[in-house]
Amino acid sequence: MGIRYSASVALVKEKTIDQMDIDRLIVTDSAREAVEAITEVAKRRFGLTYGARMKRRWIFGEKEVA
After folding, report:
1. Of the candidates 1, 36, 54, 56, which lies 20 to 30 Å from 48 by C-alpha distance?
2. Taken in order 16, 21, 27, 31, is the CA torsion positive or negative?
3. Are 17 and 11 spatial neighbours (Cβ–Cβ below 8 Å)?
4. pTM, to two decimals
5. Region for residue 15 given its phi and psi (left: phi exceeds 0; alpha: psi -120 to 50; beta: otherwise)
6. Alpha-carbon distance 43 to 49, whole Å?
7. pLDDT per position as a tens digit, 13-44
8. Where are the domains of the chain?
């Protein structure tokens, strides 16, 4: 429960935010969890995918590091 619960109850009570919007919020201190949540929404809602990797182009005479 904690701070997130009490803050969300106050916001809904004052009609600052709708309960449906509170249910959509993700509060985390984990970078991994945040990335997973964003990736999941991007794939599901917007249909994004990981495309094929681009072929490297060596136009400035770079040499590949072994």
Report:
1. 56
2. negative
3. yes
4. 0.52
5. left
6. 6
7. 898 888 888 888 887 888 999 999 999 999 99
8. 2-46
Residues 24, 32: Cα–Cα separation, whole Å = 18
Which residue, among 30, 33, 11, has the nearest Cα to 21 in the 3D structure? Answer: 11
Q: What is the DSSP letter of 10?
A: H
Taking alpha carbons only, the member of 14, 43, 38, 13 closest to residue 24 is 38
Tokens read off for 20 = 């449906």
d(CA 64, CA 53): 17
Rg (CA), the chain: 21
